């Protein structure tokens, strides 16, 4: 090979080498660019995720959630509990944020927290042993109230009138909305034409804390229904075993609630009702007569027992079409687990003490002894 040919060969090799170098540089540049872009995307995603995790789970929620912090709990277990209770979005973010803020020494106890609380508010609550946020107002709904009585309670504590309350709870569109939201609780059974108010008995008796000064009326009622749903869900397995619907359960419990006195034995009264139902006897409970009359009277008269109404259990056998009041935990427990007795009759004396009887003759003697 002559000198000229050698030069050309060397030039070709140099050109090829330069091309390879350029190609390698391009590849390195592209890889570096990809790494930078991926890192930026991951960094941005992490930033937004952490930022989101530090915000309240639901800024508009007024519902309180009970959180137990046992003695000896560490930060990991507390963070996990808060995430399970849906008070925070991410346990790890909460843990790292708490360490970053150098917060520690959380107190054991029982807390009522809300999904609208910030991370800092939750931390302060756990440090001080009390709920850091104070509600704007509380609404107390006692056991045994009818839906119109609840409306009066709402009217006294809020800017809404009892008429506005009743208009909402009797609205077909609102009832339909609640059916869709709580399908296991509010079923087609509430649509029975014999029922006076579809949501009677579905507003749970409790103390409700509201953190907004003026929540909507729908939010107020929704919170009561949500609490009923939470409580009734605890009885799901037992209801399946008994073959009892939620509507029947609430109806039965409402009778116990209205028959209850401070000294009453709900489980034994429940056994009387069960025994009467099994024997095909009418329940003959006075509170259903009062509900049928639509009046609140101290004493039921004999003429009242003749009222022609599907709620009058003196004239109609079986349970009434629906609940006659809101039932509390004790009545719900008694309805699901009644005592086993042979009793078919009972009455309460002037001191609120119940007297039970198996035979009608024995019951008449109790009437003579304790009532007349």
TrEMBL record:
It is an enzyme of class 4 (lyase). It catalyses: a peptidoglycan chain = a peptidoglycan chain with N-acetyl-1,6-anhydromuramyl-[peptide] at the reducing end + a peptidoglycan chain with N-acetylglucosamine at the non-reducing end. The keyword Cell wall biogenesis/degradation applies. One of its GO terms (biological process) is peptidoglycan biosynthetic process. It is found in: Cell membrane. It is a single-pass membrane protein. Keywords: Cell membrane, Cell wall biogenesis/degradation, Lyase, Membrane, Transmembrane, Transmembrane helix. The keyword Cell wall biogenesis/degradation applies. GO terms for molecular function: lytic endotransglycosylase activity. Its main location: membrane. Its EC number is 4.2.2.29. InterPro entries: MLTG-like. GO terms for cellular component: plasma membrane. Belongs to the transglycosylase MltG family. Functions as a peptidoglycan terminase that cleaves nascent peptidoglycan strands endolytically to terminate their elongation. PANTHER family: ENDOLYTIC MUREIN TRANSGLYCOSYLASE. HAMAP family: MltG. This is Endolytic murein transglycosylase. The gene is mltG.
